[in-house]
Design a protein that fits this description.
Low-confidence stretches: 381-385
Largest sheet: 3 strands, antiparallel
Strand order of the largest sheet: 1-2-3
Number of strands: 3
Structural class: mainly alpha
Distance between the termini: 38 Å
Helix content: 55-70%
Number of helices: 13
Shape: globular
Length: about 375
């Protein structure tokens, strides 16, 4: 028999060959699995969503989801080939472009569901808030690491300025869910950068009252909280149908395409795609899907914490926290454990901006956690020093 020849020899010096031997294969496999599951789930949700929205082609959303998935894969692979310097440059470019679009949204943005969060580009709605989040995390980590070098760079002030500008633009839309998510990830980045504990307490002292104040300042936030706390006094149709779908799935589900509740859940193909999967494929599938998210998050954080460079360590960890918290929030909403947030499930929910931005997020994280000489502390990095 002829021995199997690997397509890329370890001596292959091409960009793709070097990428293949230095990227984390387990993380890559986990992300690939999520992208494929997202496309598979679109086959289950697209016909009902198309019928509800009056779209003639029942697989309209499946076709678009497949295109978005291919685009996300290209972005993920391309960005994961970058050097740490390339990661910083891309993050800066994405930040500047996203902020410009966010500034323009109140004047040219597309309004939907009481918010102005999208820029209409032909048949595609761009949501800049999805792209600016990973950029903020990378740039904040960069500034924190520069500030700690003691060379006169006001890294902490710049990092908070970058974060504060984006949060202000989020609140204008308004988009409280993205504000909360970014604040959690920024806080984690702040904590992992090793700043004095008094600064962490200061951030918490501002963030917690700020979160509470949104209840009184934004009517839709108050309405969602009241729905969550008083089911008997509010219209909870959507979350009730999602809960029924999860319960109907039992252990192994009703079978592919057999979901009933997807015909009654308005956002079944976006925010509540998890409940559709739970009804059609059951508890086993639901737990396995959570397991894949956990694998990517925990594996990524483990690798990030072993990196020796402060910027690479903090930036990659912050990106994995961003991915993990968005996943946790979406699943928690589907399980009726917290008020609805309008948060997509990474790589699974329908949505071009979410899919492409998440490809960027994990592409940057994979780039920073690649094996490079001196990148990892022993014993994992002993062979690469």
């Amino acid at each position: 028999m002829t021995a199997y020849a690997h397509p890329f020899a370890r001596t292959d010096r091409s960009a793709f060959g070097q990428w293949w031997w230095t990227v984390d294969k387990l993380l890559l496999a986990g992300v690939a699995a999520l992208i494929l599951v997202g496309v598979m789930m679109s086959f289950a949700s697209s016909p009902a969503a198309a019928a509800r929205l009056g779209v003639d082609d029942q697989f309209h959303f499946t076709i678009r989801q497949s295109i978005f998935a291919a685009g996300a894969a290209v972005i993920l692979i391309a960005t994961s080939m970058l050097s740490p310097r390339g990661v910083r440059r891309i993050a800066l470019a994405v930040y500047l472009l996203s902020v410009l679009v966010l500034i323009a949204l109140p004047f040219v943005g597309h309004s939907a569901k009481g918010a102005q969060r999208w820029l209409q580009l032909g048949g595609f709605s761009l949501q800049p808030s999805e792209f600016v989040k990973p950029a903020v995390i990378v740039l904040a980590a960069w500034m924190f690491s520069e500030g700690q070098k003691g060379q006169g760079v006001p890294g902490m002030s710049i990092a908070f300025g970058l974060y504060g500008l984006v949060v202000g633009l989020f609140l204008i839309q308004p988009d409280i869910g993205q504000t909360v998510l970014l604040t959690i990830a920024f806080g984690a980045t702040f904590f992992m950068a090793g700043v004095p504990f008094k600064w962490i307490l200061g951030l918490a002292g501002v963030a917690i009252p700020g979160l509470v104040s949104t209840y009184f300042l934004f009517g839709h936030v108050a309405a969602r909280v009241q729905k969550f706390l008083s089911h008997d006094k509010a219209d909870t149709h959507q979350i009730d149908r999602a809960s029924e779908a999860i319960a109907n799935g039992a252990l192994f589900g009703r079978g592919p395409g057999e979901s009933v509740m997807k015909n009654h859940v308005p956002d079944l193909h976006t925010d509540f795609i998890y409940s559709v999967g739970a009804e059609e494929f059951g508890l086993v599938f639901s737990v396995a899907l959570i397991g894949v998210f956990a694998l990517v998050a925990i594996r990524g954080l483990h690798k990030a914490m072993r990196l020796t460079d402060p910027f690479e360590q903090v930036a990659s960890a912050g990106l994995f926290v961003l991915f993990a918290m968005q996943s946790v929030i979406n699943v928690a909403v589907n399980l009726n454990l917290m008020p609805t947030k309008g948060m997509t499930l990474p790589f699974i929910s329908y949505g071009g901006s979410s899919m492409l931005a998440m490809g960027l997020t994990l592409g940057l994280a994979l780039a920073l956690t690649r094996k490079r000489p001196g990148a990892y502390a022993t014993p994992e990095g002993a062979a690469f020093r």
